[in-house]
Amino acid sequence: MAVDGAQLWTLNQRLLSVVMDACSAELAELGLETKEFFVLAEVAASPYPAELAAALMIPKASVTVYVRNLVAKGFMRREIDDEDLRRHRLSLTAEGKAARDRALSALAAEFDRRLARVTPQDRTDLRRILLEMLKSPQ
Predict the structure, then answer these.
(1) Known SUPFAM superfamilies for this protein (predicted)?
(2) Which of 12, 32, 57, 137 could bond to 27 as cystine, CB 3.0-4.6 Å?
(3) Are 90 and 77 in contact (CB under 8 A)?
(4) Which residues make beta-bridge pairs with 81?
(5) Which residues are paired to 90 by β-bridges?
C-alpha cells in the first residue's frame, strides 16, 4: 500500500495533538495555554515578535496577545532592543524558563511513553528520517 505525503502529514499532526492533549493538565498547572507554551518554547530562537509569528505560523496580532499574557504572568520580558530602538526584543524570565522546561519535560515523558511501543531500531530510523526531511531541498 502506497503512503503519500498527505497521509504522513495527517498522522504526524494527530500524534502531536494527542501528545499535547495528554499534557494539557500539566500545562494548566503551570498557568500556560498550549499556544503560550509554543511561544515560550520558541522565543529563544525567535526573540522578535514578527519572527515569532513567522516561526510559529500564527498571526502577529495573536503573538501580541500571547506575549502580553506571558509578560503579565511573569514568564517573559519585553525590552527595547539596544541595536534597534524601534524593535522590542523578547526574553524569558527565570520563571518562564522553569515553566518552559517543566512543560518540555511533560511533553517528552508523554512522547517517550509512545516511543516505548517502537523498537530501538525503528526509533533510530525515525530520527534519521526526520533529520533527512529537515534538510533543505537541493
Answers:
(1) Winged helix' DNA-binding domain
(2) 32
(3) yes
(4) 84
(5) 78
